Amino acid sequence: MTLKMLPLVLLLSVASIAACGKKDTTPAAPATQEGAIQPATDPAKPEDPKAGEPAATTPAVDPAKTEEPGEPARLTGAVAKVNGVEIAADAFYAERDKITARGTKIPPDRLARIEQNILKRLIEKELIDQAVKSAGVEVPAADIEAGFDEYKKRFQSDEQFENYLKHGRVTKESIEERIKDRRALELLLEKQGDMAVDDAAAKEFYEKNERFYTEKAGVRASHILIKLAQNASKEDEAKAMEKVNKAQEMLKGGEDFGEVAKKMSEGPTAPKGGDLGFFGEGRMVKEFQDAAFAMNVGDVSEPVRTRFGFHIIKVTDKREDRKKSFDEVKEQIVKSLKNKKFFTERRKLLADLEKNAKVEKFLPDPPAPAAGEAPQPGMAPEPAAGVEGTPEPIDAPAPEGGHEGHGHE
């Protein structure tokens, strides 16, 4: 089939699918987050075609709205309807463009499955929004504010959070909207059943998973980083050493290490006085790790060169292997168990809503593998953003341990 014929074939496919009232049964793969209890997967239940339904109207397409030559024209108007409520094509393509704008070339079959999962998420959101509205659920402003404050704690500083907003594809308002949606669903589920987790359940989980609550031996350290590229010139190295010498003079003059780090360090931990927290073996680049583990508590190192630059290290604490008590981890366990229960009940709710909903889709189904043909790489359903596994499913920041300047591998 030639590329010139592809738009016509897709348009015919759209009309055929719309006329048959075909429903999408692609399950949403769960996303997971480190430290969270992973909920079991549960494929969405397919809907039976409703006899006697009128054929859906084929949506309009805009031939001018294509990303590159040969790509099918984009839909305009509605990309789906949920109980008569339209899901705008603009909302669909806004989510799709967040993925395609990253510059990675995505095979057409895989992109088609990504699109199906985006559409699935938008339909699920509309179903839940309608259920929330029908139940008269209102989210207090204080809940949104508290959720936003909790979200910001994922970042090491306000500066890092602002930088995330500046360079990310999110805004403060979009984060608050997601927090509001999550809390609205929580309140709806609480109205429908018991969502609490008691101490007995948390204790049982702790006893069955004690190995996960053992802290490995490690070191707590702070550092002052003066950045320097690995292939830096002699001139740049001399300038960096001038800064190192100035920091050392301030320390020898009696200034507090944390205060010097705030003034002189060029790493992301500078606002926290250079504190890296506890880390075990394998968490830092070798030069940094070897120096820190060889030091005693209270020691301050000479400059240590790594691929990030020069580090002046201060060891502030050391620990041996230690098992955390139940009281120390109780809050974390309760939160994880609540999260698991939330997604379990969310699946049940969506299954009920989908069973009784009228959903019309105007997006073509992805091509299926030929009979007897093994699925090719990239043909598995893509994880749908905003499904199971994370409290705020979209826009989560990178883990703190991965930022340049901490000395991490």
Structure description:
This protein has eleven helices and eleven strands. It has two domains: 3-196 and 330-402, no CATH class; 217-320, Chitinase A, domain 3 (Roll). With 409 residues, it is an alpha+beta fold.
Instruction: Provide the spatial order of strands within the biggest beta sheet.
Output: 7-6-9-8
Annotation, overall tally of beta strands: 11
Structural class by SSE content: alpha+beta
Number of domains in the coordinates? Answer: 2
Structural shape: extended
Biggest sheet, open or closed, and with what strands and sense?
A: 4 strands, antiparallel
Task: Give the SSE order as H and E letters.
Answer: HEEEEHHHHHHEEHHEHEEEHE
The helix content is 40-55%
**What distance lies between the first and last C-alpha atoms, to the nearest angstrom?**
48 Å
Q: How large a portion of the residues is in β-strands, by DSSP E?
A: 5-15%
Enumerate how many helices there are, as a single number: 11
Which whole number gives the mean pLDDT?
Answer: 78
What value does the Rg take, in angstroms?
27 Å
Low-pLDDT parts are: 1-59, 61-69, 373-409
How are the elements arranged and paired?
Layout: H1 6-20, E1 61-62, E2 74-75, E3 78-82, E4 85-88, H2 89-100, H3 108-134, H4 141-152, H5 158-167, H6 172-192, H7 199-208, E5 214-215, E6 218-227, H8 234-252, H9 257-264, E7 275-279, H10 286-294, E8 304-306, E9 309-319, E10 322-323, H11 326-356, E11 359-361
Antiparallel strand pairs: 1-2, 3-4, 3-11, 5-10, 6-7, 6-9, 8-9
Helix pairs in contact: 3-6, 3-11, 4-6, 7-11, 8-9
